[in-house]
Design a protein that fits this description.
The chain is α+β, with helices and mostly antiparallel strands. About 55% of the residues lie in helices and about 15% in strands. The protein has three helices and six strands; from the N terminus they run H-H-H-E-E-E-E-E-E. The strands form two sheets. The protein has a three-stranded antiparallel sheet. Helix 2 packs antiparallel against helix 3.
Length: about 190
């Protein structure tokens, strides 16, 4: 019978070992579940970021295509502005009174109108600021003149019209800007610009 208690002790030890093993396995499983949950959260975060990156790339590509369509004519339109300028100068220099050049002048006027209408259909719009306040975003001041009868910083003469393409400046208008006379206040435009 002495052997019986030893037998019971030996039987109890494996039960205690099994309890510790079960606890260890449970702790391992909890740690593994926690690790897997963290990996899942990281993977979901990466997937969300990747989807956002794809959406941003698609939006940027669409914007670039839209700009390319909108401003594809920029270089071509810029080259055509010299033709419009030449037609306008030809009309300025030709006399409306001379009957010998009247048919040629009429043809130039019709050609200029057709040219201007065609440019306008493609969103190329003239900037003719005569009498307007000087705007450095649309105008380039070539010189300033003292004028007592005109507000300072007003465009008093346009050397060359400016043009915009879909609201974007193609070429600034080259202008003469008024400044206050000797008795008036000084203008706010930098004359050295």
């Amino acid at each position: 019978m002495v052997d019986e208690p030893r037998q019971e002790l030996q039987d109890e030890e494996p039960v205690a070992d099994q309890g510790q093993e079960t606890v260890a396995v449970e702790e391992d499983l909890v740690a593994r579940i926690t690790s897997l949950e963290e990996q899942l959260a990281a993977a979901q975060d990466q997937a969300l970021r990747a989807a956002a990156d794809v959406q941003n790339a698609r939006r940027r590509a669409e914007q670039e295509v839209e700009k390319a369509h909108k401003f594809a004519l920029e270089r071509f339109a810029n080259d055509l502005l010299a033709v419009v300028d030449s037609l306008e100068r030809g009309l300025e220099l030709s006399s409306d009174e001379d009957p010998s050049i009247k048919p040629m002048r009429d043809g130039m006027e019709l050609t200029l109108k057709l040219f201007s209408d065609t440019l306008a259909r493609h969103q190329v719009v003239a900037v003719d600021p005569h009498g307007e306040p000087f705007n450095p975003e649309l105008h380039q001041a070539m010189t300033m003149e003292e004028r007592d009868n005109v507000e300072p910083n007003t465009v008093i003469k346009v050397f060359q019209k400016g043009y915009t393409l879909s609201g974007r400046l193609l070429r600034p208008a080259m202008v003469v800007v008024s400044k206050a006379g000797v008795g008036g206040a000084a203008g706010s435009i930098n004359e050295q610009a």
